[in-house]
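Entry:
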Amino acid sequence: MTALIERLGLSALHRLDPEAAHGLAIRALRMGLAPAPGPVTTPRLATSVAGLQLANPVGLAAGFDKNATAIAPLSRAGFGFIEVGAATPLPQPGNSKPRLFRLTEDRAAINRFGFNNEGMDAIVARLAQRGTGIPVGLNLGANKTSTDRAADFARVMETARDHVDFATVNVSSPNTEKLRDLQGKAALAGLLEGVMDVRGATPVFLKIAPDLSEDEIADVADVAQDAGVAAIITTNTTLDRTGLQSTHRDQAGGLSGAPLFAKSTRVLARISTLTDIPLIGVGGIGSAEDAFAKICAGASAVQLYTALVFGGMSLVSDIANGLDTLLAQNGFESVADAVGSKREDWL
C-alpha cells in the first residue's frame, strides 16, 4: 500500500511545474508523508569516510534541501549521511524562473537555480538545532554579486563549522557565472587555504565538475592533496548534452541524472588513480547496481538526488539494501573491501 501511495504521489507531482513539485515534496517530508525506516544498516554496509561513521554509504546530494528545512525527516529516510545547501553568505533569489526542467525520457533534470537560498545565518541556525543523528554536511557557495568569492566560502565555513559534520567547497556549479573558474590550480589552492584556515575541526570536502580535462583532473588532485581536503565529491552536474531525447535537452544549466552516470564514473576512476583522498561518487545513481559500480570504480561512498524525482524516497532503502546484497554476492565483507576493485573497467 505504501508503494502504491508513493507512486500515486509521484504521478501527481509530475503533472506540476518541477520547482513547485519539489517544494511540495519538501512539505510532504516535513509532514511525515514519506518512508522513514531510519538509517538502513548491516555490518557489511556500515563504513567510515573521512572520519565520519556511516550506517551505510548512500548519501543525499546537496541541492535537495537547500535551506536545511527537512533535516529530521531526511535523516530517517534510510540515508547514511545527508548534505544540505548550498549556503551563501547573503540570501539570494537565484536565477529567474523557470530554472528546473524534468527530462523524463532521459531520467534526468536540468537546473540553473544559481544558488538560490535563504543565506547562511538562517541555514546555520537550523543546523544548530538539529540534534543528534546521521552525519549532516553543508555545501558552501558564493554570492553571485560577490567581489571576493573565495572569501565568501570562508565566511560560510566559519559560520557553520561548529554545527556540521562536514562542509563541501562547491566550485563546480555551472549556474553561477565564472564560478567554475575557481577550479584552476592557483585559484583553487587559494580558496581552499582560506577555508581550511577557519574550518576548526570540520572535515572539508571538495566538489568538482565532470567536464574537466585530464590535466585539470590532475591539477585538482594535486591541490586537494596539498590542501588537506578530507574527501572529493565526483561530480557535480554537466554541460554535456550528448544523446538526450527530451524536448528540454537544450535548456541552459547543469544536467543531472542517468545520462551523467558514465561520464562522472570515468572522472571518479581517473582521480582515484591520482590520490588516496576518499572519493564520494555522484552522478546518475538510480539503483543498487549503480551505487555498487561507483564504489567498485573507486568511491568510498555515494550520493544521489535526481533519481528521487523518478523513484521516490523509498528508493533510498532499496539502494542500500540492494547494495548489501550485491556486496555479499561478490564476496565483499565490507564496503571498503569493494572500493576500487573494478577501477580498470572505467579507465
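The chain has a mean pLDDT of 94.
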